[in-house]
Each structure stands twice: as C-alpha cells, then as structure tokens.
Amino acid sequence: MTPTAKAQFQIHACVLLWGFTAILGKLITLPALPLVWWRMLLVVAALTLVPRVWRGLRAMPPRLASAYCGIGALVALHWLTFYGSIKLSNASVGATCIALATPMTALLEPWLARRPFSMRDVLLGIAVLPGVVLVVGGVPADMRLGIAVGAVSALMVALFGSLNKRLVEHGDPLTVTALELGAGVVLLTALAPLMPLLFPAFAGKLLVVPSLHDAGYLLALALACTLLPFALSLVALRHMSAFAAQLAVNLEPVYAIVLAIVLLNEQRELTPQFYLGVAIILAAVLVYPLMGRPKKLEHPEVLATSEAKGAAE
Predict the structure, then answer these.
(1) Is 231 within the bounds of a domain?
(2) What is the distance between the alpha carbons of residues 147 and 203, in angstroms, rounded to a whole number?
(3) Confidence band (pLDDT; 50, 70, 90) for 308?
(4) Residue 304 pLDDT level (bands cut at 50, 70, 90)
(5) In Å, what is the CA distance from 291 to each residue of 107, 116, 123, 210, 259?
(6) Are 103 and 125 in contact (CB under 8 A)?
(7) Burial of 244 (0-12, 13-18, 19+ CB in 10 A)
(8) DSSP letters for the chain
(9) 313 in a domain, yes or no?
(10) H helix or E strand, kind and range, residue 39
(11) pLDDT at 148
(12) 162 is in which domain, residue-wise?
C-alpha cells in the first residue's frame, strides 16, 4: 500500500470514529453539560500524562496561551450545543447541522482573515439554503429547537476552526489541545450553577459519578473518538492534499447519519423531506472543494486540533 493510499484509509477511519460521536451522544443518558464536561476532563487527564504537553506549556508565551484558552471556550460551547442538539432531537439532526459549519466557515473566515469574499463562498452559502428549509420542514415540530441549537453549534465550529488555523502553528498540537480543552472544563464548571436558569435542558450535576453504562460510553467518546483519531489524523494528513482531506472530512455527517439509521433506527422519526434536505446540503458541501484550486496542507495538525470539522481548507 502506497503512503497516499494508506493515508486515505487512515483519514476515513478518523472520520468514521468522529461520526460515532453523535451516536454516543444519543446513547449516553447524561444531560449535555455533564456529558461534555466529562468528555473534556477525560481527554485533558489523559494528555497530562504526556511529557511533551508539559514541555509545550513551559515554552508557550502567556499571551498565546490565553488566546488558545479563549478558543477553548468556543470549543466547549460547540460541544455543549452539539450534544444539546442531539438531546433535543436525534443524532441525524445533530450531524446534519454540523454540515452547516462548512458554508459558515466559508463566509466567516474571509471576515476574520480580513480578505475579500469569494464568489465560491457566497454560492456555497446560497446553495445550502433550500436544504436547510427542507430539513426544518422534514422533522417533527418538537425537534426544531434541536435544529436551532445545532446551527449555533455549527457557528461555533466555524469560529474556533478559523481562529485555530491562524494560531495553531505557534504551538505543539497536543499542548494546544490540552490548553483548549482544559479551558473548556473551567468554563463549563463556571457555567454549571447558571445553566438551570440559562438553559434547563442542558443542565446536570457535574460531580456525580456516571453510571457504569455511561462511564463506558464516555471512555469510548474521549479515547476512541477523540484522542485516537487525533493521533491518527496527524499521521495521515502529512501524506494528503488539502482537497483530499476536506473531501474526506465533509463525509462525517454521512457516516453519522448512516450509523444513526443502522444503530438507532432514526429513519422512523424523520420524513423523506428531511433526507432530501440533507442530500442538498451534503451535495453543496462535497462539491465545494471542486470549485477551488487544490492547496498544499501546510499545517496538517490544524485538522486534528479542530476535530476535523470545517478546518481543512
């Protein structure tokens, strides 16, 4: 097997593992807040065992560390709203909303990078709108709040992905991940007392030991769906173009929706109109890389530290 073919296999394995995050979010019985808190805490705890992380922290300027902590707050809010969306609807809806991160990134990144908007970015934003309308109309009324929360989650992906791309080359990827997720744990701990007032659907006690059922799924979420694909993607992305990486990563909602159908029978909860809307959104997202010139992936670690959503370009 050539290095390129091996890298393709590895990146699709990563995307499949990331696709399981939506499934596990539905299977874990904890509310969104303690679910995300435990996920981030377990990953940070594992990273503190890596000497390289401590060396990176000692070498990092305080101002840069603060910037990463700020991005970590956005990561925490993304995961909180992502799992909140799943709890308020289902895994298929949550995964579909995350697909909106690509057009949101295309429209936000030029503004953040202070460069002109491209016609390709504008066309992508327009192309997904009919799909969004169909998705909203194709779910039961009691799931539509989940779509709104999922759209906020996609916005958070667009923000932290774009910011990470500007800063990630200045720090070791494992150190950056530990800082960002550590900051996320601190933010969620501070929000916990306010959550019953701000958003009761997300609220839950943090310091209650999860049941054996939830603990097993949380470990799988933290280790198999976060740290393992992180490490694997760092290897794979050094032998791939930005185009190939983005195309593979944009398949994540497809994997998640197929897994939700196979494992959770979610097709019974949703109408053909929903899946037509999903098809339009995913078609626009997958065609998007074809409309631009392939670029060299100068910092492959960007994809891993952004959990691969919308950060490959």
Answers:
(1) yes
(2) 19
(3) very low
(4) very low
(5) 15, 17, 10, 47, 29
(6) yes
(7) buried
(8) --HHHHHHHHHHHHHHHHHHHHHHHHH--S-HHHHHHHHHHHHHHHHTT-HHHHHHHHHS-HHHHHHHHHHHHHHHHHHHHHHHHHHHS-HHHHHHHHHTHHHHHHHHHHHHHT-PPPHHHHHHHHHTHHHHHHHHHTS-GGGHHHHHHHHHHHHHHHHHHHHHHHHGGGS-HHHHHHHHHHHHHHHHHHHTTTHHHH-GGG---SSSPPPHHHHHHHHIIIIIIIIHHHHHHHHHGGGS-HHHHHHHHTTHHHHHHHHHHHHH-GGGTS-HHHHHHHHHHHHHHHHGGGGS-----S-THHHHHTTTSS---
(9) no
(10) helix 32-47
(11) 95
(12) 3-305
The pLDDT, as a whole number, for residue 198 is 85
Round to whole Å and give the CA distance between 119 and 156.
23
Contacts of 110 (CB under 8 A, 6+ apart): 116, 117, 118, 121
DSSP 40: H
In a domain, 55, yes or no: yes
d(CA 110, CA 123): 14
Number of domains comprising the chain: 1
* Spatial separation of the C-alpha atoms in residues 3 and 238, rounded to whole Å: 10
- The pLDDT of residue 49 is 94
User: Is residue 199 in some structural domain?
Assistant: yes
Give the Cβ contact number of residue 256 at 10 Å: 27
| 121-128 average pLDDT score | 84
Backbone φ and ψ for 60, nearest 5 degrees, come out as: -85, 130
Would you state the structure tokens that stand for residue 224, as one six-digit string? Answer: 């198999």
| Tokens matching residue 305 | 């530290």
Alpha-helical (H) ranges within 237-293 are 242-249, 252-264, 272-287
Over residues 224-281, the pLDDT tens digits come to: 998 888 778 767 767 776 567 667 777 888 899 999 999 999 988 899 999 999 999 9
What's the pLDDT band for 173 if we cut at 50, 70, 90? Answer: confident
Mean pLDDT on 169-197: 89
pTM assigned to the model: 0.87
